[in-house]
Amino acid sequence: MTLDTSQTEPRPGRLTAHEARQRLQHARSSRMAQLQALEETGQSAADHLMSAQAEAIRRVLKEIDEAFARIDDGSYGTCLGCSRPVPAERLEILPYTRYCVPCQRHATA
Fold it and tell me: Which domains does the chain have, with CATH numbers?
């Protein structure tokens, strides 16, 4: 799936820039709420599980910000590994993803 920057009717398998931004904003809001809830639990900083969860959320927030930048530069929806479009279904699940599934497998292997 690539990004349709025309802001009009998207072609099948494409998001408008507005739709992509909405999905990313929703993902950001959800992660911010999770992070706030973790911070409000009153757990000590030495709690390794809580620290690990907070760090994972911060990493996702960074990926979300990077996805906003890809919208701005026109590369959103294009796999950074193979340069092919990321499938629409994958971007629906992970709107901040940088890779298609095969390239993600290689990146984490």
Answer: 2-108 (1.20.120.910)
pLDDT in tens, the chain (109 residues): 445 544 444 445 677 889 999 999 999 999 999 999 988 886 665 688 888 899 999 999 999 999 999 999 999 999 999 999 999 889 989 999 999 999 999 887 6
Q: What's the chain's length in residues? A: 109
Pairwise CA distance, residues 89 & 97, whole Å:
11
Nearest residue to 107 (alpha-carbon basis) of 58, 96, 98, 74:
98
Element (H, E) at 90: helix 88-93
Other Cβ atoms closer than 10 A to 6:
11
Q: What is the pTM of this model?
A: 0.81
Transcribe 26-62 into DSSP letters: HHHHHHHHHHHHHHTT---TT-HHHHHHHHHHHHHHH
Question: Hey, what are 41's tokens?
Answer: 């639990």
